[in-house]
Amino acid sequence: MVTATISPQYTVKIPANLRSQLRVGQRMAVSMDAQGRLVLTPIEQARVVLDETFGAWAGRKDIPKSGIKYMDKIRRGHRGKRLGKIRGK
Predict the structure, then answer these.
(1) What is d(CA 63, CA 18) in angstroms, rounded to the nearest whole number?
(2) Averaged pLDDT score across all residues of the chain
């Protein structure tokens, strides 16, 4: 494991042994996983994954075009089931 320090400007110096895998100016998505590890993902890598799955659900009649409406519908169903248990049904 290599360590790095976060500067007062919240920058992190990439250790020398990892630099060969990165390009200067490369755009990265930055996130933190459940264990608190900082995760850098090249934007182009994320775009490739999105492009591969684009349209996978297109044309489905059982799923509304709006994902928000679909999730609201699912949540309403779960709430209804939960309410039935609470009311003793």
Answers:
(1) 43
(2) 80
Q: Are 64 and 73 in contact (CB under 8 A)?
A: yes
Q: In what helix (H) or strand (E) does residue 30 lie, and over which residues does it extend?
A: strand 28-32
pLDDT value for 35: 92
Instruction: State residue 84 phi and psi, 5-degree precision.
Output: -60, -40
Contacts for 2 with CB less than 8 Å, ≥ 6 apart: 15, 17, 18
- What are the residue boundaries of the structural domains of the chain, listed by start? 24-54, 62-89
What SS3 class is residue 83? helix
Is the predicted pLDDT of residue 40 greater than 70, yes or no? yes
